[in-house]
Automatic annotation (TrEMBL):
Coiled coil: none annotated. This is Alpha-glucosidase. Belongs to the glycosyl hydrolase 13 family. GO terms for biological process: oligosaccharide catabolic process. Residues 31-427 form the Glycosyl hydrolase family 13 catalytic domain.
Length: 569
């Protein structure tokens, strides 16, 4: 078991007396997608030793914690989110000794480690499921999943009308040991990912044990995959709709966001609280409203929940202000920090999403205007890092990486790409390995190429190419995170003070700090008070008429198009 961190929160709670303290309240957390971060052995696949070798880079970036996507033993039908053994490392990523060394090194650098846990479903190669299929109907192990007889004279139809997120029915029929068609099993994602039955006590017992295993290894917390999906409505009722299921919908489904999930997370919280060092749980909960999301972070449940409503908001001032207000208002009563995130391993990178004149969703096929997308992405980042709460950064966004929209069909590996419907299947574009050096077969990712092809011009976007270069995306991220840590008015808190502003411009104050955001495609003049701290754009913030403030401390500044500027006041 590694020595555990116990550093206090670096931010301030500007307006919430009695707000719970904790390092997660204002943390900047960096998501590592291990297969695409760094390859230590030249097999084209990133691994834990590769992550470990790059921890000093993450320390220099200034983040507080590192969230690792799954590295467990898995057939990799869905990039490791199909887990065959929750207590083992897949050989492609290394071993438990590598995991232990990574955790120890991270703690030496004052970095915390958060790992994924996948409790909604396992791999179809998990020992429980393999034995359940082999034993046939009546096996006690089948009760740990959702096995059901089919409908129709010969059971040839699925038990209900539920659809898989990846497209097609959420049910697959088994073959009995004697070779005849058998029962069906439920999988809300790929057929290789059967859903656990959380009504069975053995499932709950197993996951409490899994949590303790990794907490004993020294991890600082868990990102809970599909946290909203564990409990299914009694009787597994039909939906009565033929529209394709989406992760973020407007209705509560009989398999998503059922109230019973909260009992599970209350039991998990008691385990987390037994361990020193403020261990946390983070919910990946796709709910109809941010108010429903707040249920997952009540004081006796999880500590954070991803704000997917914010991630799904386009570069529009009115929409952004609305989602910011709604998010802060929803979290305030439960005393939890609001989280902010712009990109992750499941959505098109925001440098590409914002490269289009209008909102087109979170999975795109077209690159759009690269210059526009990068300018807006940088501005969106400074807006995000100025907001009260905790922020998540997805690997490579600090380099301004766009989505790779030109991957050939034969290179794609997203399972939903090969299905008839469901998610668009273009998640591979945000999972292309990140570039570290200007040159090399995979720009420093590894010596043996990369599992997804990297664009030929990515050397210019690499860590090496941007380090020390004034105005680069990487140096902007470093400066912003450092300023956020140093400024007493940034970090934790639960509200912002909106100021009067022209149309399509956002201006808000926090203690000793002002954030101005121009979401238009043209320069905008606004009166400001204070000194310029940081700007997102390559354009220069200019002052009209005079370089000195008036007697009241106010001066008129011209903000370049699609730019966020920070001011100290």
């Amino acid at each position: 078991m590694t020595q555990h961190l116990a550093a206090p929160s670096t931010g301030t709670s500007d307006d919430a007396p009695g707000h719970r303290s904790g390092w997660w309240q204002d943390a900047v957390i960096y998501q590592v997608y291990p297969r695409s971060f760094a390859d230590s052995n030249g097999d084209g696949m990133g691994d834990l030793e590769g992550v470990r070798s790059r921890l000093p880079y993450l320390r220099a970036l200034g983040v507080d914690a590192v969230w690792l996507s799954p590295f467990y033993a898995s057939p990799q039908a869905d990039a490791g989110y199909d887990v065959a053994d929750y207590r083992a490392i897949d050989p492609m990523f290394g071993s438990l000794l590598d995991a232990d060394a990574l955790i120890r090194d991270a703690h030496e650098l004052d970095l915390r480690i958060i790992v994924d846990v996948v409790p909604n479903h396992s791999s179809d190669q998990h020992d429980w499921f393999r034995r359940a299929v082999q034993d046939g109907p009546g096996s006690a192990l089948r009760d740990r999943y959702h096995f059901r007889p089919g409908k129709g004279p010969d059971g040839e139809l699925p038990p209900n009308d539920w659809e898989s997120i990846f497209g097609g029915p959420a049910w697959t029929r088994t073959t009995d040991p004697d070779g005849t068609p058998g029962e069906w099993y439920l999988h809300l994602f790929a057929p290789e990912q059967p859903d656990f039955n959380w009504d069975h006590p053995a499932v709950a017992d197993e996951f409490r044990s899994i949590l303790r295993f990794w907490l004993d290894m020294g991890v600082d917390g868990f990102r809970v995959d599909v946290a909203h999906g564990l409990v299914k409505a009694a009787g597994l009722p039909d939906i009565g709709s033929d529209s394709q299921l989406k992760l973020l919908g407007n209705d509560i489904m009989p398999f998503f966001d059922q109230d019973g999930v909260h009992e599970i997370y209350r039991s998990w919280r008691t385990i987390l609280d037994e361990y020193p060092g403020e261990r946390i749980a983070v919910a990946e909960a796709w709910t109809p409203t941010v108010e429903r999301t707040a249920n997952y972070v009540r004081p006796d449940e999880m500590h954070q929940a991803f704000n997917f409503q914010y991630l799904s908001t386009f570069w529009d001032a009115a929409a952004l202000r609305d989602v910011i207000d709604t998010s802060l208002a929803a979290m305030r009563p439960v005393g939890a920090p609001t989280t902010w995130v712009l990109s992750n391993h499941d959505v098109t990178r925001h440098a590409t999403r914002f490269a289009h004149p209008v909102a087109l969703g979170t999975q795109l096929r077209e690159p759009g205007d690269r210059e526009l997308g990068l300018r807006r992405a940088r501005a969106a980042t400074l807006l995000m890092l100025a907001l009260p709460g905790s922020a998540y950064v997805y690997q490579g966004e600090e380099l301004g990486l766009p989505d790779v929209t030109t991957l050939p069909d034969e290179a794609r590996q997203d399972p939903s790409y090969f299905r008839a419907a469901g998610q668009d299947g273009f998640r591979d574009g945000c999972r292309v390995p990140i570039p570290w050096t200007r040159e090399g077969c995979s720009f420093g990712f590894g010596s043996g190429g990369s599992w997804l092809p990297m664009p030929l011009d990515w050397g210019g976007l690499s860590v090496e190419a941007q380090t020390g270069v004034a105005g680069s995306s990487l140096e902007m991220y470093r400066a912003a995170i450092a300023a956020r840590r140093a400024h007493p008015g940034l970090g934790a808190g639960s509200s912002v003070d909106w100021q009067d502003a022209p149309e399509d411009v956002l201006v808000f104050a926090r203690p000793g700090f002002l954030c101005t955001v121009n979401t238009t495609g043209s320069p905008v003049r606004i009166p400001v008070r204070g000194s310029l701290l940081l700007a997102s754009g390559p354009g220069t913030v200019t002052f009209t008429d005079t370089d000195s403030p008036g007697a009241d401390g106010v001066q008129e500044a011209e903000l370049p198009a699609d730019t966020t500027v920070w001011w100290t006041v």
